Amino acid sequence: MSDLSMNDMEKKLAEYKCDTNEAVCLKLVRFPEDIDDESTTFHPEFSHQLYGDDEVAFGYKGLQIQLYYSAGNLSTLFKVKYTARVTDTFDCMEPDDVEDDFISLLEKEANFKPFGSLLHTYKVHNVEAGEDLTYQIHKVDISCPGFREYHERLQTFLMWFIETASFIDVDDDRWDFFLVFEKYNKDGETLYATVGYMTVYNYYVYPDKTRPRVSQMLVLLPFQGEGHGAQLLETVHRYYCTSAKVQDITAEDPSENYVKMRDFVLVKLCLTLSSFSSEKLSQGFSEEMVSEAREKLKINKKHARRVYEILRLQNTDMSDEEKAREFRLEVKKRLYGPYRKNQRELTKMQKCLRPEELASHISQMDTRLQHEELDKSYQDVLAEYRRVLERLAQA
């Protein structure tokens, strides 16, 4: 085969490659007309967990992998559409008409009710609808009738939107589940749409405490940017605050976005504590802050310190050079911790390393470079804190 014909073949085959992040079409369907409404379609951020690292499907032109969920119960419709494929092996077979079956499931959505117990109700103003929409947060465990099957459908969203997602062992009774639903009306009936959820694992802490750890958290794409994540996290914190057995609340491998949201929620909660008052903030980080944050809000020392720095910034006139300097030095003192650790390790190395090995380690810990990195870390932290305060001012 000539090079030309080989190139032609490669070009032809390339026409049958599709980006699976674009090809996968997701919907949360409330009404039958939503099925053909392209404006209700959204796409995954990640599809490599199903379609490989290159996120490419081969063999189709115009591929659409349609995975539609009823908005509340998350019953599913799955269809594959394409304009052409490499080979039509079974062209004489007709697929079942599964779309009519899905519409009949939509009619049963009025029977769907949120699982578990209601913890919190809140409203969000929707500009498009021109009204306040009502949302509810429920707490549930796996023993709730029907929840196991519902959760199996719900967690399928993880692989589309969380890069390292994995399914959990729901038979372990240490799991707590928190669900967010939108309450809406259709033909005079009250229905509920799934908005998002959080899973929390209750770790045992000797001798008689537990440490709830947030494992998974997801707000479905059509509802993102409306503040549901913060509402959910605050509700979960308030739920565990009522238990004397809870030591503190943590998170498993938190993302950058989760940390931003947690900063906002914890600062908002700590504003109610007397130890974080303006007068006490000016006196520096204290054991009173640590103990009150832990006892009343189940916030650990590391997070309490971060909250203190954010609120200290809010109460500092950064145009006053002396006050700005005091704040900067206090934050940098905390940030310098890892560098101090390096210095201690260097002292130990001096006793056991050969001169050439020691010189190599010293060059890696160049003082000027450390100061540059420290200053950059401070500027990054300052930008993060200011974003939290901006959001707090808008809340």
Automatic annotation (TrEMBL):
Keyword vocabulary terms for this entry: Acyltransferase, Nucleus, Transferase
Residue span of region Interaction with histone H4 N-terminus: 53-55, 201-203
All residue ranges annotated as the Histone acetyl transferase HAT1 N-terminal domain in the record: 16-163
Site (Interaction with histone H4 N-terminus): W175
Keyword Transferase: yes
EC number of the protein: 2.3.1.48
Keyword Ribosomal protein assigned: no
Major subcellular site: nucleus
One of the protein's GO biological processes: subtelomeric heterochromatin formation
Catalytic reactions of this protein: L-lysyl-[protein] + acetyl-CoA = N(6)-acetyl-L-lysyl-[protein] + CoA + H(+)
Summary of the function given for this chain in its UniProt record: Histone acetyltransferase that plays a role in different biological processes including cell cycle progression, glucose metabolism, histone production or DNA damage repair. Coordinates histone production and acetylation via H4 promoter binding. Acetylates histone H4 at 'Lys-5' (H4K5ac) and 'Lys-12' (H4K12ac) and, to a lesser extent, histone H2A at 'Lys-5' (H2AK5ac).
Similarity section: Belongs to the HAT1 family.
PANTHER family assigned to the protein according to its UniProt record, in alphabetical order: HISTONE ACETYLTRANSFERASE TYPE B CATALYTIC SUBUNIT
Protein name in UniProt: Histone acetyltransferase type B catalytic subunit
Species name: Sinocyclocheilus anshuiensis
